[in-house]
């Protein structure tokens, strides 16, 4: 399950963000996961729950936004949603592999707080 490694990286970024802001808690972590990223949102949630206890992100909220992949058709200049890396444009039927979005996972936000403890 490569989500474990991805979550580890995401948490490291969150911890660093907290450190930079002088905060001692991570209260929420936002991720956007593209439908073609190969990342399983449920596996990310599972990893988050498994890794945060005992850290400054314990009890934090994980907010996952699932992003539909979009593909660009240069033939008719349209952007359409896709579930595959190669799709036919729904407007003109031209095959397109020009995926513009939905191929990766991003951290959208890290919320931190300083509870004084
Ligand atoms: Zn087209």
Structural account:
This protein has 117 residues and is of the alpha+beta class. The protein has a domain at 3-67 and 102-113: hypothetical protein PF0899 fold (2-Layer Sandwich), CATH 3.30.2320. 25% of the residues lie in helices and 37% in strands. It has helices at residues 3-20, 41-51, and strands at residues 25-34, 61-67, 69-73, 78-82, 87-88, 95-96, 99-101, 105-113. The strands form three sheets. Strands 2-1-8 form a three-stranded mixed beta sheet, with helices on one face. A three-stranded antiparallel beta sheet has the order 4-3-7, with no helix packed on it. Strands 5-6 form a two-stranded antiparallel sheet. Strand 1, helix 2 (41-51) and strand 2 form a beta-alpha-beta unit. The model has no long low-confidence stretch (mean pLDDT 95). It binds zinc ion (ZN). Residues 73, 75-76, 78, 89, 91-92, 94 line the site of zinc ion (ZN).
């Amino acid at each position: 399950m490569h989500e474990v490694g991805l979550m580890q990286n995401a948490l490291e970024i969150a911890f660093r963000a907290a450190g930079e802001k002088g905060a001692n808690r991570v209260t929420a972590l936002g991720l956007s996961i593209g439908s073609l990223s190969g990342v399983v949102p449920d596996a990310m949630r599972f990893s988050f729950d498994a890794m945060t206890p005992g850290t400054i992100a314990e009890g934090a909220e994980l907010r996952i936004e699932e992003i539909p992949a979009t593909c660009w058709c240069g033939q008719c200049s349209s952007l359409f949603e896709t579930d595959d890396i190669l799709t036919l444009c729904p407007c003109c039927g031209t095959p397109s592999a020009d995926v513009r979005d939905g191929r990766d996972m991003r951290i959208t936000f890290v919320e931190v707080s300083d509870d004084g403890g």
